[in-house]
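new request in #modeling-help
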Amino acid sequence: MTTTEDDGRRTRPAPRPHPDAGADQDQRLVVDGLEVSFGQRGRQVHAVRGVSFTIDPGRTLALVGESGSGKSVTARTIIGLAGDRANVTARDLSFGGQDLTALSPAQWRAVRGGRIALILQDALVSLDPLRTVRAEIAETLRTHRTVPRAQIDERVHSLLAEVGIPDPHRRARQRPHELSGGLRQRALIASAIAAGPRLLIADEPTTALDVTVQVQVLDLLGRLTDAGSSLLLISHDLAVVARLADEIAVMYAGLIVERGTPGQVLDEPHHPYTRALIDAVPSLHARGTRLSTTAATGSDLDLAGPGCPYAARCRLADDRCRTLRPALAEAGPGHQVACWHPVSADAPLVLLPPAPRRPAGSDVIAAGEAAAISEAVAVSGTVRGDSPRALAGPGPAEPARAGRDESDVLLRVDGLGKRFRAPDGTWHEAARDVTFALPAGRTLGLVGESGSGKTTTARMVLGALEPDEGTVWFAGQRWNGQGVAEKSRRPHRRRVQAVYQDPLGSFDPRFTVERLVAEAVAVAGVPRGPARRARVVDLLDTVGLSARLLDRRPLELSGGQRQRVALARAIAPEPDLLVCDEPVSALDVSIQAQILDLLADLQAGFGLAVLFISHDLGVIRHVSDRVLVMKDGRTVEAGEAEQVLTAPAHDYTRTLLASAGIRP
Amino acid sequence: MIVRLLSGVAKRLLAAVVVMVGAATLAFGALHLIPGDQVSILLGPNSAASPEVRAQIRSDYGFDRPLVVQYAQYLSNVVRGRLGESYQQNQPVSALIGGQVWPTLQLAAAALGLALVIAAVSAVATAGRRPAWRSLASAWELVAVSTPAFWTGLLLLTAFSFQLHVFPVAGAQDLRSLVLPALALALSLAGVLGQVLREGLETALRQPFATTARARGLSQLAVTTRHAFRHAAVPLLTLAGWLTGTLVGGVVAVETVFGRPGIGALILLAVSTKDMPVVMGIVLLCGLIFVVTSLLVDLLAVVVDPRLRAEAVAV
């Protein structure tokens, strides 16, 4: 498995032999039969169950999986930071011949930072926010006595230059919050590599970054492996992994279920879970196709059972799957799969029966869904015509809806502008001359990187922020602008609802699900008592949640369930417009797929207009009729979704697309 | 930037002045809200002064003038540092307080310093460690918080002065006599501060930067002292500043138990004899201590957390 063939995804050359090649060959990470569990006997949680892999010098292994799959625990265990309560056993866990299971605390301190380094997700919180970049990098140098004390400053500056930070003298004096996301992630990497470790563990190193910056940071990591370091890359993002990995291992419930080169795993996945992961990436699927294929959500699963842990979610599962766990078996040269029913590359999973969990009012939604899909095809016939998946949508076109034209505008935004005062006293233009129109029942995707003005625009559309110039028209009335009073908006407030990225922040943590939804139902005018409760249950059913969750509190829900509750609240007053600000950005890809499918169902069923804000072009492409690309508060490009995303006119849109790995 | 910084400082100072005027007004109001005639209070319960003498006193002290005039006169005196004469001791209030304030400040500073040290040691040693150690530390902190300082003082006296003869029983002659009272006062403070500090340390240790620091090769102790402590220090400072403002009450009891000179004895005497000018002077002193410590805490917080700089300027 350490000899993986190059499949052309990585353009860089095969690892060069390091100057001291002899010693270098010993710098190999061996993980054999790693088991990690937490807690005491009886209530043990097995986070990692018999994981094995090796990484040779200069190579990159990517561990891919959803949250809770055990990939981060595996990474932390290798650097000895799985925590006091972790019970770690392994047949072999060694780096460069040094047994990592038998190290004293002092020996561990020499290994950490010195031979193995860890790079975490967001440098804003992964670097000490109270200390300067210099202090953070110097700490590594001092701890491992890498350079004499007098040369520390000099070395800090050369390290910053090495990771591609311009003006290192100035940057070294700054603190993480004073740097941009990309720069501080580079600074974090500089602090990790300061003592010259031979193995880098990068746990979601680019997840918090904008796509264009992601590419730069990944390139930096690639350069480091070219220089002879090994890299263990942890990510949930298949695009990130494809760019960098020599080998990919897919983890599920603490087990490696598939392993191979990026070509094998991403292009010819054999495990149904790998297949589902890839299918759930929205950018690969045209509008109107369903993304989620799994039958059950993670919370209902019996992962510790004797069978295949994926059996409960797998459509191919039979009795053998549920009683006997499959071992990793060769599926090709260097390609291993742990599955009794490996899928062949061509067999489309889409032909399998649809998900059994349909909302109760499913006939209504199903009809609406068909209409939405046919409408999507009809409206943009020429551009969408080349997409076979869109054309394969069920049901014939419905003339009533397809005939809708642009004059039926629900939301019109006209020359919106907003300025803010920065802490240093200068004015910052968050939005400038933003103009668009959104017809009833349609979706407008607002895409851009952080700081592009997406959220400012959304807040002005919601009437939460008064614009400095311009007007928002909603249903033919002045909705927001200079001099529009909240009092005049209030009677129509219920017609505009919002869904945010993190519902945990907008839910009272002490409220139960019933109370959370009932609050929204009350606003819609449903009287207290059995009627209200019935409406709550009805709404939960519509968003695919069981009434058993009524007594749960937000913290006891999974991320996907929380977002479903947020949607239930949003649709309770039967709005005409839904403003979604990064609604799926915090979710695992398979959960994201379910929420996007649900949103499509709701939109079709209730004829909602949706203003969908995201930094993720794939998501935007999947949900939008029209797209607006924003940068630094301005609109750089706007048009039909397929038009903008397949034939971008603006350089910035092209850069975004290229960074996201979407080929126009 | 400089202008904004200066305006920020000016705003803080203005707020301090407002607090001081408030304290003075409160003291003045208290004097005039106390039931009974000012002159009777001044003369004491057993005085046999004739009505003529009383009228004379009334006019000497200006009690016959309108309240507004008295208030203005009082404020202008306070600004010039004149706190009036004690009714009972025939001395200027400023001289009385000035003569007694140093032993008290000594005791308060020693107690606060000691409390911070005890809290820091106890919290750093137990934060993020085994649950057994944590529960033990939490338990002693709970006991320390809930035990009144005078009771702790009596216990300490019994043990170290009467039984072991290590420390003197009373007085303020040298540093040795400071140890027991400071400890008595510090223990309950240390209990509160320790709990807040441990909470802050553990919050900081759960942050990703703590993991990054461990992954750099730092020991748990080094991460706690070099990284987490600074994060936990801001809430600790805020609380310590607030506790300093309330320390006077504890000082009275402890000074009495240990027979120390200081503001405590002065307060007791002034309150029991209704010596209003002295009481008002002490109210002003408390206000001053509160204002100064608040300014100090704000300043230190900005030093500890540079991110607060922008906010401090903006406020």
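bot summary: The radius of gyration of chain A is 26 Å.
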